[in-house]
Design a protein that fits this description.
The protein is an alpha/beta fold and 569 residues long. It folds into three domains: 223 residues, Vaccinia Virus protein VP39 (Rossmann fold, 3-Layer(aba) Sandwich); 122 residues, no CATH class; 189 residues, no CATH class. The protein is 44% helix and 13% strand.
């Protein structure tokens, strides 16, 4: 302490002359040298901090910075602390700079243009200009590196400063008042000012935690370079509805608008990347070839995605196609979607899907019907007197589509041995049914809809299936009565017992016989199938057909002008 007092006494003698010198050079900058009393409290605490850690944390703990060092009065005192290895200063006055000892390293001249973010320091001290102490102190608290101690000599009103409070809150700091002082009897330059010497420990850990928001450099980056945050994107269905409502578009037009926005965003992003300097591109390992490959892939993926979304939006078609047919149409559509996704092409593809879907409606009825053709489930037409053996029927006769010898019809009660049933353990659809059984029961609903039945229940996946327990799929009759379309029980032996509504059986048999060429008119249907003439007339009519893009109101509703396309799409 004796050495400290001697050094301060020797330095103080030169202060009056130096004060005159800075005034002559117009470099006063509110220089009020820190008093001996304040320096004594500072040195005592710095020494205590050094003893506590024994300077073993890192070399950075042995570095001391005085922000606004003046002629180095504080640095002279700190130099005498054991273990303090490096002294640093930020000082604007040339007069003061020339007077600083050679062992003081100058980190900067103008504090407002000097950053502390990347400095390796153990202690930061400042006795700032009082006219801007809040801004000055806030900058130090904002930029001081982690695991260092900040000391500030500032007016006691600092506790009411919003700027300082904001930085304290942002970094979760806990200021400590080491002492209350004034400059009224200061040995170098008196002033009517009451001050606090405050100590703020900057928490450790921010330098070790990757991208920690407490890290001052991370905070600086976030404030200086706004990084695009990943936004939670609205569900696609909401985006479509929003585009339809805001811009009064139908589904196709809205889908095309969203695709155009995606393309514009891609173009803007890749153009922005290409404005970067070659050095930055090299640093991020971005090459021209890589960008070309990436863009090509993104364009192809986006087109495929939007063509699939277009197909998914064709609900009127989806509900009219069986599982196998739906996959077939989707695969065909995807194989032809290398074309650009735009308004005209979208309408053309929709027309193409409509044409193909109509071609499948008849075949999927035949396919679903044939799955029910078991020996125990069929009866002969009235005119078919021939007796047949089961094996020949199953493997030979079923292929003779135009045969007049084996004209068959299904009954309304069936035992199905080839359509799957219950399964133990893991169920792909989580219903207890095999996929084969679930697809078949869903296909029955599709066929019923195409035959004019107003099915009001969802598919089998909406039910929880248990061995031998009956499940019912209902429809609403033309009179408005709710009835059972079919009643089914599934078993672990992979069999299903099926009971169909009489009208549904009649419709299946009439349309199957008509498509096979076995029934030429409703009169034949009534006679051969032994059903009422009225029922034969009703079910002999052509079943569901798509008659153009107007059949899909969800896609075209609100369109002012729908392109007209020829058959070729």
């Amino acid at each position: 302490m004796e050495l400290f007092e001697h050094a301060n006494a020797a330095t103080a003698a030169a202060f009056p002359e130096q004060l005159k010198a800075v005034k002559r050079a117009a470099e006063d900058f509110e220089w009020y040298p820190t008093t001996r009393e304040i320096i004594a409290a500072l040195v005592a605490d710095v020494r205590q901090e050094g003893d506590r850690y024994n300077y073993s944390r890192a070399n950075t703990c042995r570095a001391f910075l005085d922000v606004g060092a003046g002629n180095g009065k504080v640095l002279d005192a700190v130099r005498e602390i054991e273990g303090m290895e490096s002294l640093h200063a930020i000082e604007k006055s040339n007069t003061h700079l020339h007077s600083l000892p050679a062992d003081v390293f100058i980190l900067g001249v103008d504090f407002w243009h000097t950053s502390l973010l990347d400095k390796q320091l153990g202690f930061v001290f400042s006795n700032p200009p009082y006219s801007e102490f809040a801004e000055w102190s806030a900058k130090i608290l904002r930029e001081a590196p982690g695991d260092c101690v900040v000391y500030l000599v500032i007016p006691e009103r600092w506790e009411r400063s919003e700027l300082i409070a904001r930085e304290i809150e942002a970094r979760k700091l806990k200021p400590e008042i080491l002492g209350r002082f004034d400059f009224e009897s200061a040995e170098d330059r008196a002033a009517r000012c009451k001050v606090h010497l405050i100590k703020v420990k900057i928490p450790d850990g921010c330098r070790w935690m990757k991208d920690s928001p407490d890290d001052p450099f991370v905070r600086f980056f976030n404030e200086s370079f706004p990084y695009p945050e990943t936004k939670e994107e609205k569900p696609f269905a909401e985006q479509i509805e929003e585009a339809k409502i805001v811009y009064r578009l139908n589904f196709i037009e809205a889908l095309c608008r969203l695709f155009d926005l995606r393309m514009a965003e891609l173009q803007e992003n890749y153009r922005a990347v290409c404005t970067l300097s070659p050095d930055i591109l090299k640093e991020f390992e971005i090459s021209r070839e890589g960008l070309i490959t990436s863009l090509r892939m993104k364009l192809a993926t986006a087109k495929k995605e939007y063509w699939q979304r277009l197909f998914d939006g064709m609900g009127e078609i989806q509900t009219r196609l069986t599982a196998a047919t739906r996959k077939r149409v989707c695969d065909l559509m995807q194989s032809r979607t290398g074309i650009e996704f735009n308004r005209d092409n979208a309408y053309a593809v929709v027309m193409w899907v409509i044409k193909n879907a109509n071609g499948y409606f008849d075949q999927q009825l035949l396919d679903t019907y044939e799955k029910m053709v078991e020996a125990a489930n069929v009866e002969n037409y009235v005119s078919n007197q021939r007796v047949f053996q089961w094996n020949r029927f199953r493997y030979d006769t079923a292929r003779e589509e135009n045969s007049t010898h084996f004209r068959l019809k299904v009954g309304h009660r069936m035992v199905l041995q080839h359509c799957g049933g219950m399964e133990t353990g893991y169920s792909e659809r989580c219903t207890g049914l095999t996929r084969h059984a679930a697809d078949f029961l869903s296909d029955l609903i599709v066929v019923a809809r195409n035959l004019g039945f107003d099915v009001i229940d969802g598919g089998p996946e909406e039910h929880e299936w248990k061995d031998s327990e009956a499940r019912v799929i209902r429809f609403k009759s033309k009179s408005g009565k709710v009835e059972s379309l079919y009643r089914v029980r599934a078993f672990y032996n992979r069999n299903m017992h099926l009971q169909l509504h009489p009208d549904f059986v009649h419709a299946l048999n009439v349309q199957h016989g008509k498509l096979r060429g076995w029934l030429r008119n409703d009169a034949e249907a009534s006679a051969e199938l032994e059903i009422a003439r009225e029922s034969a007339v009703q079910h002999f009519r052509p079943h569901f057909r798509l008659d153009g893009i107007s059949s899909l109101p969800a896609l075209t509703l609100g369109a002012e002008e729908v392109p007209q396309h020829r058959d070729a799409a």
